[in-house]
Design a protein that fits this description.
Largest sheet: 2 strands, antiparallel
Structural class: mainly alpha
Distance between the termini: 95 Å
Number of helices: 22
Order of helices and strands: HHHHHHHHHHHHEHHEHHHEEHHEHHEEHE
Helix content: 40-55%
Strand order of the largest sheet: 1-2
């Protein structure tokens, strides 16, 4: 019985370790599936209402809340949910990174599919875990001068943007192509089950229409690069680049939930070999607490069962936090401050860009850029695919923020979905009554291309599609003289600047397809008192 006691204890510990590992895997899979389900639900499904908390991952992102607070000098309501994430980090360490973050889970899976030893590649010294803290400091420094740029590298924003602009369009194209191939095969046995399945996918998963985005290739290449970095080191993004991980690491170093090593440790090094985050090389008992994802790998592989994670009253590790160089922190913060005026130096600074048409409910341009995190939620939910990511229309500061491109899609008259999904308040939620009165621009007619003006050919398409209660496009009866000298009556369209809301449907539907004879610019938008046609 005495000899059996150690074996019983070892068995209990083994079961406990297996359970911890399984719980972590279950947690990762659960939150990844939840993220994907909410992403799918962030779309038009026949109703002008999003009934699900589709932006919940962004609202629990404390980095987005903090930078928005600093950049806009206002307390965003969703920051309160981010404080819950910080609270869990303070209690248990970086469990969000190891157990919840969907991008972390995807990186974990890619790293597992491409197994390699920890030292397969030699990583340059500057590409260590300290780099993400300097990136975080850069964003904090920039936010002091109201630059909101953290969404470029924030993991939740980055993943939503990548899925929206690249992965979803590719997925939709592949699925539509596959089922078209099955349909045209004319094999009854195949079409018998493929058509019902296709109908189900169109109702539940596929987009309302095939999406296309201008910056899809650029965003997709960045996302692919992040995944390929796992070939260098597993969860390279989480370890080296992630600014949210850096913020949580700062909080985690004060947690009392710690890794404890008892005297049975024989310093075999198994914990280091299987740890890709918190263990310091060559020092089995040295542990960078701020880098630990509480994944339990070290606990799982320890042959002596010497490693435990629990609340402790004293520290048992050598390195409590990242040993950052103060000079580098100052340089990073200063670089963020200097970057702001550099990004805002451009020709025509302060003048409205004629094609920079923001979604209805968008704040004034200055406030909009202080809040927009470039997550792409508004673009995903746009049922006409008219909202596209900018490149340089709003300067480098506004890259990948939403812009209405009327040649791609128009702003649907009664749609208010973009304001419902915006997590940062850059786009206000409007009622339908407010929406139909909100001006986002003004239509202009190019008489050199308009068929009634230039060719004397009757055309009333723009007026037919104008959605305002009293048509913003009206006609002037005129006589047109053809080359043969014959006179005929035509209706020449005019735009009522008081009624036009700039929705862009006239430009989208114009039969002059290469360069429409009617186009919309941002002038007259409700959000600006200066961008007016008449004062």
């Amino acid at each position: 019985m005495v000899n059996a006691a150690p074996r019983v204890v070892a068995s209990v510990l083994s079961i406990k370790l297996i359970m911890v590992r399984k719980f972590r895997l279950i947690s990762q899979v659960f939150f990844l599936i939840l993220f994907l389900v909410l992403l799918i639900l962030t779309s038009y499904r026949g109703s002008d209402e999003i009934r699900y908390p589709v932006r919940i991952f962004l609202e629990f992102d404390p980095l987005v809340g903090l930078i928005t607070l600093l950049a806009s000098h206002q307390i965003p309501l969703f920051l309160l949910l981010g404080l819950i994430t910080l609270g869990f980090t303070f209690l248990f360490g970086r469990v969000f990174c190891g157990w919840v973050c969907p991008l972390g889970t995807i990186n974990h899976a890619v790293g597992w599919l491409a197994p390699h030893s920890r030292d397969r590649f030699s990583i340059p010294r500057f590409l260590n875990y300290r780099l993400k803290y300097y990136i975080l400091t850069f964003f904090l420094g920039a936010s002091v001068l109201s630059l909101q740029w953290v969404g470029i590298l924030d993991p939740i924003s980055l993943l939503i943007r990548s899925m929206t602009l690249t992965v979803e369009p590719i997925f939709n194209r592949l699925v539509h192509g596959l089922f078209a191939l099955l349909y045209f095969s004319n094999i009854d046995l195949i079409t018998l089950w493929s058509e019902p399945l296709y109908d189900f996918l169109k109702r539940s998963i596929l987009s309302f229409r095939q999406p296309h985005f201008h910056q899809g290739i650029m965003v997709g290449l960045l996302f692919a690069l992040i995944l390929l970095l796992n070939l260098i080191q597993r969860r390279f993004w989480c370890t080296v680049l992630c600014p949210l991980g850096a913020l949580l690491g700062v909080i985690a170093r004060f947690s009392r939930f710690e890794r404890l090593i008892d005297d049975s440790c024989n310093e075999c090094g198994q914990c280091f070999t299987n740890c890709f985050h918190g263990q310091k090389e060559g020092l089995p008992r040295a542990w960078v607490k701020s880098e630990c994802l509480v994944c339990g790998n070290c606990q799982d592989v320890c042959p002596e069962r010497a490693v435990q994670f629990k609340t402790a009253t004293r520290s048992s590790f050598i390195s409590r936090g990242p040993d950052l160089v103060r000079r580098n922190l100052i340089v990073s913060a200063f670089s963020g401050v200097v970057a702001v005026p550099l990004m805002r130096i451009r020709p025509g600074e302060g003048l409205p860009h004629p094609r920079l048409i923001r979604p209805p409910g968008a704040l004034s341009e200055k406030e909009f850029l202080q809040r927009c995190i470039k997550c792409g939620e508004c673009m995903k939910v746009c049922l006409t695919n008219g909202l596209q990511p900018t490149l340089f229309e709003a300067g480098i500061e506004g890259i990948w923020s939403p812009i209405l491109v009327s040649r791609v899609g128009y702003c649907q008259y009664y749609c208010t979905l973009c304001g419902q999904v915006c997590p940062s308040g850059a786009i206000r939620r409007l009622s339908q009554a407010e929406k139909v009165k909100t001006k986002i621009g003004l239509a202009f007619i190019d008489m050199n291309r308009c068929l009634p003006y230039a060719q004397g050919i009757p055309c009333i398409v723009c007026e037919e599609y104008c959605p305002t209660a009293k048509k913003a496009i009206w006609f002037e009866e005129a006589l047109a003289i053809g080359r043969d000298g014959k006179k005929r009556s035509v209706k020449k369209p005019k735009v009522d600047i008081d009624l036009c809301i700039g929705c862009g449907i006239c430009e989208f539907k114009c039969p002059v397809v290469d360069q429409p004879a009617i186009y919309v610019t941002s002038i007259g938008e409700s959000r600006s008192e200066q961008n007016r046609l008449t004062l």
